Amino acid sequence: MKRAGIRDVAERAGVSISTVSNALNRPHLVSERLVERVRAAADQLGYVPLQAAQQLRAGRSGLLGMTVINIANPFFGDMVAGAEDAASAAGMRVLLGNSSDDVAKERDHLELFERVQVEGALVSPFGDTGPWLERLRRRGIPVVLVDAVDDTGSLPSVSFDDVAGGRLAADHLLATGRRRLAYVGARSAVRQVRERREGAQSAVDAVPGASLEPIWTERTTSELGRAFGEQIAARHPDDRPDGLVVSNDHLAIGLVYGLISRGVRVPEDVAVVGYDDIEFAAIAAVPLTSVRQPAREMGRTAAEMLLARISGEAGSAQGNIVYQPELAVRASTAGRGAH
């Protein structure tokens, strides 16, 4: 059904478009009878003024653009909620673009931000966004990276020490006596995934006799995790990893289910550490040990940093905030000498 426009309201009320505009936006310029007539017509048609157009005429959109890699991952949902907290407190709204692990979608979102003239952009990049971010900056739209860092040093960022996070996860498994570790993650081209593996590898390299097997997936869904858990369970016990570092909790929760559904005990046979510490990690059938990222705080901090740049309060400092990992230890690793 076509959305009702101001012309439709004018025809229904039997007045000019300018009268409709005055009745809805400057009612003191027309009679009370006309205001009531126009409002009645607008109500009948379900007409809603385009706030974005009104704000653009005033020289601002009132919007912050934000892209995330995949909103299906609760980590990104929490990060968006934090950004919305800060935006709302400043009287602004967040226009969200979900890339869904797709470079083309990510670029479409960034082009949309340019077209609607967002006042600033929060970008959690999936692909190479450099040229598109430069276009935003040339238009005077400030950009802050979230859960990422800018290798060129030209963009402010709020990120997480993923090398330290991967090392923390593997150190924990090694401390429980595990020696045949595997790292399960999607797309080694993604910086966060790659750095988590690098951290895990550095921990393994420091322990004689320990090994780390990379297991790469296409996506990070719990259903795919279940399938990989079943595949790992099907191996001979001597060929099976006894400890898993998993690149996010969605994947890890599925892995645990796949293992136990095929008779492999968690953590007695295979211990599992996830990443992000999403809400479901603590209430899973086997509560999941996980590397904790303060997702909501990261989103809020990034939005506050962006708002400071929009208002001109940030000064010349770029600002790069790096959060450090913590480990939430639960039943998926608690056993066999855990401490």
TrEMBL record:
Classification via InterPro entries: HTH_LacI, LacI/GalR-like_sensor, Lambda_DNA-bd_dom_sf, Peripla_BP_I
The organism's place on the tree of life at top rank: Bacteria
Entries under PROSITE patterns matching the protein: HTH_LACI_1, HTH_LACI_2
UniProt entry keywords in alphabetical sequence: DNA-binding, Transcription, Transcription regulation
Molecular function in Gene Ontology: DNA-binding transcription factor activity; transcription cis-regulatory region binding
The HTH lacI-type domain, residue ranges: 4-58
Name the record gives this protein: Ribose operon repressor
